[in-house]
Design goal:
- The structure is a single chain.
- This protein has eight helices and no strands.
- The protein has 192 residues and is mainly alpha-helical.
- It has two domains: 71 residues, no CATH class; 110 residues, no CATH class.
- The longest helix has 27 residues.
- About 3% of the residues have low confidence.
């Protein structure tokens, strides 16, 4: 269970009266309230000296309602992750197009062009794989993103020390993205 999420829900529900919480508990509407919400309600009631007692059967048993409950249990991808994935894929497409134009414009058998193309296409493939993992909210993709952003931040810090001041913006943006992915692990945990 995600204790951080339960604690956040608990803080939000503390404003409700004991009677309201007992009604929610007894009604046991799993379409309206998540498992984490019921854990939070139970903790609030126990802290208030109340015995929540037994819950009624789940409020709805029909197939449509079960489908809605299953859909509610699915993890929601944050909009910033969606935007980040789109930017990664666009960057990979630009890298591939750049290599195509390099081959069209230059000598095909030039060893420098060939090596550069292999490296650029490999990196583009890596970024696309990470983008697919982030789209599916896979934790390995979050870790790979942290590593790649960390390397980018280090490179931009070196460029900054060499007097290239455009690196400041890149350093701030990539540093914030690195922080976000490091702190928001809960989005990438398996669905309950």
């Amino acid at each position: 269970m995600n204790e951080e999420l339960i604690e956040q829900i608990r803080r939000n529900l503390e404003t409700k009266s004991t009677e309201e919480l007992l009604q929610i508990w007894e009604k046991n509407d799993r379409n309206e309230w998540s498992d984490q919400a019921f854990i939070a309600i139970q903790r609030i009631l126990e802290a208030r000296g109340e015995n929540p007692g037994p819950q009624g059967p789940p409020a709805s048993e029909d197939i449509e309602t079960q489908g809605k409950a299953a859909q509610a249990d699915r993890r929601q991808r944050p909009g910033c992750v969606t935007a980040f994935v789109i930017l990664i894929v666009l960057g990979a497409i630009v890298a591939v197009l750049q290599q195509v134009f390099t081959f069209v414009a230059g000598p095909v058998w030039d060893e420098g062009n060939t090596f550069g193309a292999v490296v650029a296409l490999s990196i583009a493939g890596l970024y696309v794989a990470v983008a697919v993992g982030l789209w599916r909210l896979q934790n390995w993709a979050r870790i790979a993103t942290i590593v790649l952003l960390g390397l980018t931040v280090l490179l931009l810090a070196v460029l900054l020390f060499n007097g290239i001041f455009f690196a400041v913006i890149g350093l701030l943006v990539n540093g914030y993205c690195l922080y976000w992915f490091a702190v928001n692990k809960h989005y990438f945990e398996p669905a309950t």
